[in-house]
Amino acid sequence: MNISIVTVYNSLNYGSFLQAYALKTYLESLGHNVSFLETKARNPLKQTIRSTIKKALKLDIKGVRFQVKKYINFDKVIKEFKLCKNNESSLNSQDIFIFGSDEIWNISREDFRKYPIFMGVGIKNKRLISYAPSINTTKIEVINQNSYVKDALNRFDKISVRDNYSYTTLKNVIEKDMEIVLDPTFLIDKSVYLQTEHSVNNDEYILVYSYGHNMNETRVKRIKEFAKTKNLKLLSVGFDLEWCDECVSVSPFGFLSYIKNAKYIITDTFHGTVFSIIYNKNFVTYGENNTKIGEITNQFKINSRNIESNMKLEDILNENIDYQSVNEMIEIYKERSIKYINESINYNYGRKENMHENIV
User: Fold this and answer.
1) Count of alpha carbons within 13 Å of 339, Cβ hemisphere only?
2) pLDDT at residue 22, as a whole number
3) Is the backbone peptide bond immediately before 276 cis, with ω within 30 degrees of 0?
4) Alpha helices (H) in 121-269, listed in sequence order
5) What is the C-alpha separation between 17 and 133, in angstroms, rounded?
6) Segment 224-283, tens digit of pLDDT
7) pTM here?
8) 34/324 Cα distance (integer angstroms)
């Protein structure tokens, strides 16, 4: 079958790219012809130009080089994705559209709200399936203010979401069965990721994967003190954090290689947490106010890794994670998630396409 994924596939963000790559890779392993629908929701070149101009005005030449290198590394791998044009001919050539994962239903963010196609608006008479999208912390009041949401989601043949918050909130909006499934990065075996491995710096390091804004002075001080006690350098991947010893701008697959070889991982992102778990790393995540991070650490019963202000970094990282138990849970959830996506793709496949009404 021809399957087009509707997601953010071309953002300069490791997690965003890798969730798209993982879902594509899994679907291709089933023998399907997979593409990504062009939504115009992201423009990485424009994003890079804007950020480099800001840095250039501050005479931050190092930062300019960092951003340009990041764009080049992402552009190379994004170009490998097959795309489906957003026109009548291309849309009609697809059998199924799968929406997700990531925060594509987070309409509290303008850069998603401006593109109702993330909820299928404008796609006529086609089978619509969602796989693990999230609304993040969008309030039900915001959803009700955007009247198209209810009608759009009720058109879906099958709906799954990534987290309990999305599930319980949307249950108050639409009268459809829903399931909670794993982020698509869990769908493919770690061995598949290992095949993409790049050569990385062989020095021993603590990997820091953070956007930076959550790392206040106190946290930075504690992280640096911990690195000193372990005689390890702090290496930031993807972000130019001045308080780290080294910052690297690499492709998404280079990011995975740095995850694999890290002695410890310190993050404040959802996918930083996810890949720490997938690679069975000793990690902490600053996600005490992050619903997505809290849910996934709770799901795998590793809440102790979600560091709070009164917890000592060294006390957490000096304890090992019971990854045998975690991996067993992953396999259980993975089996359920694979069952959902396989059954959704094959569900009542022979039915008439015109059963759907178009929403303009």
Assistant:
1) 8
2) 98
3) no
4) 140-145, 148-154, 164-171, 190-194, 217-230, 252-261
5) 14
6) 999 999 999 999 999 999 999 999 999 999 999 999 999 999 999 999 999 999 999 999
7) 0.93
8) 34
Which value, to the nearest 10 degrees, does the dihedral of the CA atoms of residues 279, 283, 289, 292 take?
Answer: 10
With 0-12 / 13-18 / 19 or more C-beta atoms within 10 angstroms meaning exposed / middle / buried, residue 205 is buried
Q: Report yes or no: 187 and 334 within 8 Å, Cβ to Cβ.
A: yes
**Closest to 258 measured CA to CA, from 184, 212, 196, 326:** 196
**Is the predicted pLDDT of residue 352 greater than 50, yes or no?**
no
What is d(CA 9, CA 188) in angstroms, rounded to the nearest whole number?
Answer: 17
Segment (H or E) for 332: helix 323-346
What b/e string do you get for 315-339 counting C-beta neighbours within 10 Å, with b at 16 or more?
Answer: ebbeeebebeebeeebeebbeebbe
For 133, phi then psi, to 5°, come to -70, 165
One-letter amino acid at 12 equals L
**Virtual torsion, Cα 14, 17, 20, 25, nearest 10 deg:** -90
Q: What pLDDT does residue 351 have?
A: 45
Q: What is the DSSP letter of 39?
A: -
Residue that has been written with the tokens 């291709």 in this structure: 28
Dihedral Cα 312, 314, 320, 326, nearest 10 deg: 50
Decide if 359 contacts 123 (C-beta within 8 A). no
The secondary structure of the chain in percent helix, strand, coil, rounded to multiples of 5, reads: 45, 15, 40
Per the CB < 8 A criterion, the answer to whether 184 and 19 are in contact is: yes
Say which residues have a Cβ less than 8 Å from residue 40's Cβ, sequence separation at least 6: 86, 115
Q: Are 210 and 266 in contact (CB under 8 A)?
A: yes
